[in-house]
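Notebook entry, cofactor series.
This is the third protein in the set we're modelling with a bound small molecule. For this one the ligand is LFNQLBSZ. I'm keeping the input format identical across the series so the outputs can be compared line by line later. Sequence and SMILES below, as received.
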Amino acid sequence: MLALGKLLELTLAGHEPAAKIQLTSEGARLRWLAEGALEVTPPATADSGLDLLLSAGIHGNETAPIELLERLVQGIARGELKPQTRILFLLGNPEAMRRGERYMEQDINRLFNGKHEQTSGFEALRAAELERLAATFFSKPERTRLHYDLHTAIRGSKIEQFALYPWAEGRTHSARELARLRAAGIEAVLLQNKGSITFSSYTYAKLGAEAFTLELGKARPFGQNQGVNLDLLESRLRSLISGEEPEVDAALDGLQLFAVAREVIKRSDEFRLHLPADIENFSELPQGYLLAEDIAGTRWIVEEADARIIFPNPKVKNGLRAAILIVPGSLPAA
Ligand SMILES: O=C(O)CCC(=O)N[C@@H](CCC(=O)O)C(=O)O
Ligand SMILES: [Zn+2]
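Returned structure with ligand:
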């Protein structure tokens, strides 16, 4: 196997490879761009016109998606997986990956869309670098741009694999992309209705990519991901990469759609979230339920019918999202 196929090993060891460019026997080019960043260019005669950004490890302890990207990189480096797409593999937060932590000082996934300019430190620099790498990768005109930012969640979930679809002014959510996700095993999609500071929001809003955060199960350490079944996603990614994607059924085939009702923002150290510690994502909350309390008598009461909760986390820093209240959603009529 080509040495650059060991992207995860290189990244965990903090090693810069001596040879930055290697070619597979079929003529695909692997180029190491920076720590945790590998670009794959197919032979010109086999280029389908798709630019595919696959990122994982934006949160360092979310290892199942990192292991998935590792299998894809190794498949390409061994010549088993023959790319017909340009691909950028990004391992988001190498230092946090080495330590098995979600982040070191700051959550990188709250530092995009310019947020990194308002702060300093390792993660701010890395967010700026990730934006640069993505912007350069997606700078070629007249190509199709697709970004999957792969994550696992802190807690269990009533819906195991789901996606968050960013929002941007003047753009509509694509039914075809939703069908593609459904075919990859995604069971539900949360349609965002305002801009955000996550990586997928950046590539969607600023770089014109179709972009998604994918939540693929519960976060566990390296080597302990037997409970996270990524077979369907991996098989669809392989077929996308090799230019053999099966026809995507236009029907969404049971895909559940949700909309954001409200983001619960933690304002102070007095913030209290009134949920059991082991509550699962997508748990339903009754109308009238006192969800949270914060400084100066602020009370978050569930007013929406059929509301559910995702990503409840009272430990986030003040000013950040401590939960999302969601309701059933739909695509606007075509
Ligand atoms: O389990 C949790 O509470 C968080 C899981 C996670 O890291 N989710 C992403 C979602 C990103 C998005 O909103 O698109 C995050 O919080 O960064
Ligand atoms: Zn994550």
